[in-house]
Specification:
It contains 14 helices and eleven strands. It is α/β, with parallel strands linked by helices and about 425 residues long. It binds nicotinamide-adenine-dinucleotide. The site of nicotinamide-adenine-dinucleotide has 20 residues, from helix 7 and strand 7.
Length: about 425
């Protein structure tokens, strides 16, 4: 039977309700957390290259600021809609809370197809969005970052526009900026580094020796290629990787650095000498120790979860596992490290970037990586202990840790009377 497609807003509300019930929290906690505290819709004109005026619609959702200013990406995509932006801002609250970052969740979006826009039009869409939301964002209020189809250059344009409005440089407004205007060393690799750190911690708990552990990675992009390299550096055997055009499989393993060089030349990992092609579906069900989904959402579903043979699934991607598949994996004894923990390395180094901007004092890549690993391990332990104590999945445990932290902040601030 096909799985019911839930609206992401309904999914996150369900997750919050489950956590509030398990923790037996005051009813006010769910009432406050079940929707964003603020969601602004903006419509603003942009002069297109042909001289015409086009009005773009964008959003900024701010979920909860009990522990600090809100934080989260801004995406440019034709499919952006308000419930998705709201849900993504809510997930950001819990991702930040799991890591113990002093942030609530935010998310933004502009309905547009950047592939059909010129560089100048993208710059105008970026500057227009930040002008339209300027009253509710800022280094002390809400700090955006890159997300789908936005990048460091777009962050730079937005910081520049906001700095004009503020009449002072405001590098702390955005994270994911180019290094020359206050970006952080280590940001590019942070998501994968955080994911590998917690995957290795999980392997240790489960008695899996990383030396020679067999790893399969779905999606060989920013997160997936770096995760494969770091796993390889730790002594694991990379047996399969893939991208949207095909895969590469060799049960004896291969060097991910060499396959990255091959991909840069050929546009895909498919055809790498000494490997055979593998479909995305077959990669997910390979006999391996650690599976890292690092491509898209909804990859592990009720249709394939029963055939997964990995012992650990480390979710570098956002939402790669459907709720039904999650239950199946748990019943098979497979440990799933949930996205809000496994891919939180990115937002953690974004936090470091903001701290460096506020202090105007910059850290080396080594300092960034050391602090990132410490924070990832501390959070992994908190979630692992909750999973042990409550006899629940790591995903449920992550939500329990996160919701409890936000509830504590709301309680001491007097919001729950
Ligand atoms: P990316 O665009 O750099 O890489 C995505 C890769 O997935 C590409 O290699 C693409 O070819 C591949 N892919 C697409 N469709 C596929 C399919 N059907 N089968 C196999 N591979 C396929 O993106 P990214 O930044 O690496 O992000 C990947 C995932 O990680 C996303 O879910 C993203 O939300 C999540 N994530 C990324 C970051 C980050 O800092 N990059 C942070 C948090 C979460």
């Amino acid at each position: 039977m096909a799985e019911k497609t839930l609206n992401p807003f309904e999914i996150v509300q369900h997750q919050i309700k489950e956590a509030c019930d398990a923790l037996k929290l005051e009813p006010a906690v769910f009432e406050i957390l079940k929707q964003p505290m603020r969601c602004l819709e903006v419509n603003y004109p942009v002069t297109m290259d042909d001289g015409s005026i086009k009005v773009f619609t964008g959003f900024r959702s701010q979920h909860n600021d009990a522990v600090g200013p809100t934080k989260g990406g801004i995406r440019f995509h034709p499919g952006v809609y308000v419930d998705e932006v709201k849900a993504l801002s809510m997930w950001m609250t819990f991702k930040c809370a799991v890591l113990g970052l002093p942030y609530g969740g935010g998310k933004g979006g502009v309905i547009c197809n950047p592939k059909g826009l010129s560089a100048r039009e993208i710059e105008e869409v970026s500057r227009g969005w930040i002008r339209a939301v300027s009253q509710i964002v800022g280094p002390e209020k809400d700090i955006p970052a890159p997300d789908v189809y936005t990048n460091p250059q777009i962050m730079a344009w937005m910081v520049d526009e906001f700095s004009k409005i503020r009449e002072q440089n405001s590098f702390g407004l955005m994270t994911g900026k180019p290094l020359i205007i206050g970006g952080s060393a280590g940001r590019g690799e942070a998501t994968a580094r955080g994911c590998v750190t917690v995957a290795l911690a999980a392997a240790k708990k489960m008695g899996i020796n990383v030396k020679g552990a067999r790893v399969a990675v779905q999606g060989f992009g920013n997160a997936g290629s770096v995760a494969a390299r770091l796993m390889y550096d730790a002594g694991a055997k990379i047996i399969a990787v893939n991208d949207s055009r095909g895969g590469a499989y060799n049960p004896d393993g291969f060097d991910p650095n060499a396959i990255l060089a091959y991909k840069e030349k050929n546009g895909t990992v498919k055809g790498y000498p000494g490997t055979k092609d593998i479909s995305s579906g077959d990669l997910l069900t390979l006999d391996c120790d650690i599976l890292i989904p690092a491509a898209l959402e909804n990859q592990l579903t009720s249709a394939n979860a029963g055939s997964v043979k990995a012992k650990i699934v480390a979710e570098a991607a956002n939402g790669p596992t459907t709720p039904e598949a999650d239950a199946t994996l748990r019943s098979k004894g497979i440990l799933v490290i949930p996205d809000i923990l496994a891919n939180a390395g990115g937002v953690t180094v974004s936090y470091f970037e903001w701290v460096q901007n506020l202090a105007n004092f910059y850290w080396t890549e080594e300092e960034v990586n050391t602090k990132l690993e410490q924070m990832m391990l501390r959070s992994f332990d908190a979630v692992w202990n909750m999973h042990d104590a409550q006899n629940c999945s790591m995903r449920q445990a992550a939500y329990l840790v996160a919701v409890d932290r936000v509830a504590q902040a709301m309680r001491v601030r007097g919001w729950l009377k």
